[in-house]
Write a structure and sequence with these properties.
The chain is α/β, with parallel strands linked by helices. 34% of the residues lie in helices and 14% in strands. The longest helix is centred in the middle third of the chain and has 18 residues.
Length: 404
């Protein structure tokens, strides 16, 4: 991609913004909480289109590392950032061991959590326990407050399904199970632990600003889990229905999504009461498709959202920089989302900043990382974000949520 192409795109976006009318008032409650209306998100009474980023280490990075990522998100003109609450460990005395190396001294992006953990097994009480201290949930307090200062919304997944920092796999290991896909959603003990955890998060009072999480409009939405790859499918559907109902019983302010990757387009979450929008993760390399086929999926999956009258969000995507056409591929995908009125937005995997070492995270395996480095890719993401958040909406009207 030539530099002049990037500059041309920026000029096009700026020109378009100058021609757009100011947002119109639709005569509805201008709630600061993000809601949904048909295939659109809504905030303050007007459509809210997502131009977002992912970062996995925000819950356990140093304060400076968190600040740097949030500042870079603002510099990219993103309006939403997504992460999942982690880590989860065994018991502090190691009688119930962690199934991952939580004491690693690696850099933050490489899963060096440096003593931070949110959930652990209390060996003295033989039960799950929550770390409410400075090396625990205070980290999420800090993240939310710093995001609020920057006018960024946050999508928070209650848990990660995978074992990279413990997640659901550590929680089933507390009970001696090595079953990756079924035990967590089926066993009554892990189900109870999960609900207790969700309740604790939603009702938590931020130690910095005094707000209950349930009352904090900085939170864009909750997600049940990052990529809940639960099998068999009937069990997944039962679990989604049960947990969606539970979350909604605790918090009626925020949207809820499943966090499922939905790479094959099943979208069981859209069929679930209490799930407000669909999510999917698009990686041609992992999904064994071409970039062109990914582009076709964008339109097809947004059409599925229209069928269920709910937004569908491409909340993770990546195409490695080892491919010379990375910028062109991203430009095509983001153009497709922008041009489709039923597409609610996008979130790239992943935005990273310099770590405390002064270096960017190693990304030699996936090649997806976005840096604030004034590169052609960075400029493309900036221009695409500006355009996306200012996307004109045709024939938009707020729908009565009771009719959904």
């Amino acid at each position: 991609m030539r530099w002049r192409a990037i500059f041309g795109l920026v000029a096009l976006v700026v020109s378009a913004l100058l021609l757009l009318p100011a947002h119109l008032s639709y005569g509805v409650d201008r709630s600061p909480f993000v809601t949904s209306s048909g295939t659109h998100f809504v905030a303050d009474g007007v459509p809210f289109y997502v131009a977002g980023v992912n970062n996995h280490y925000l819950p356990y990075g140093s304060r400076q590392e968190v600040i740097d990522v949030l500042d870079d998100a603002v510099a990219m003109h993103a309006n939403v950032i997504r992460t999942f609450i982690q880590p989860v460990i065994g018991s502090l005395d190691n009688k119930v061991p962690a199934i991952w190396d939580w004491k690693s001294t690696a850099e933050t992006s490489n899963l060096g959590v440096h003593g931070v953990y949110m959930l652990y097994w209390d060996a003295t009480q033989s039960r799950m326990a929550i770390n409410d201290g400075p090396n625990g949930m205070h980290r999420i307090d800090f993240l939310l407050e710093e995001a609020r200062k920057r006018d960024l919304k946050v999508i928070l997944a209650f848990l990660d399904f995978w074992s990279y920092t413990g997640g659901a796999q550590q929680m089933r290991a507390w009970y001696g199970s090595d079953d990756t896909y079924t035990f967590f959603a089926k066993d009554q003990r892990t189900t109870a632990d999960y609900k207790n955890w969700v309740r604790a998060v939603i009702t938590r009072v931020n130690s910095i600003n005094g707000k209950r999480y349930a009352d904090d409009p900085t939170i864009f939405a909750w997600e049940l889990m990052n990529e809940p790859d639960i099998h068999p499918i009937p069990l997944l559907r039962l679990w989604l229905a049960d947990m969606a109902l539970f979350v909604k019983s605790q918090d009626r302010n925020h949207l809820l999504a499943s966090g499922h990757g939905n790479s094959n387009g099943d979208f069981f979450d859209l069929q679930t009461d209490g799930i407000d929008f669909g999510t999917w993760h698009g990686y041609p390399r992992f999904n064994d498709i071409t970039p062109a086929e990914m582009n076709e999926r964008i339109n097809a999956f947004c059409a599925i959202g229209a069928r269920y009258n709910k937004p569908v969000l491409l909340e993770e995507f990546g195409w490695s920089r080892v491919h010379e056409n990375q910028i062109g591929v991203y430009q095509n995908w983001l153009n497709t989302i922008y041009q489709n009125q039923d597409c609610s937005g996008w979130m790239v995997w992943r935005l990273v900043s310099r770590q405390d070492s002064g270096k960017y995270p190693d990304d030699s395996v996936d090649g997806f990382d976005i840096h604030n480095d004034d590169s052609p890719l960075w400029r493309l993401m900036q221009a695409a974000a500006v355009r996306q958040i200012s996307k004109p909406t045709l024939s938009f009207s707020i729908q009565d949520p009771s009719t959904k």
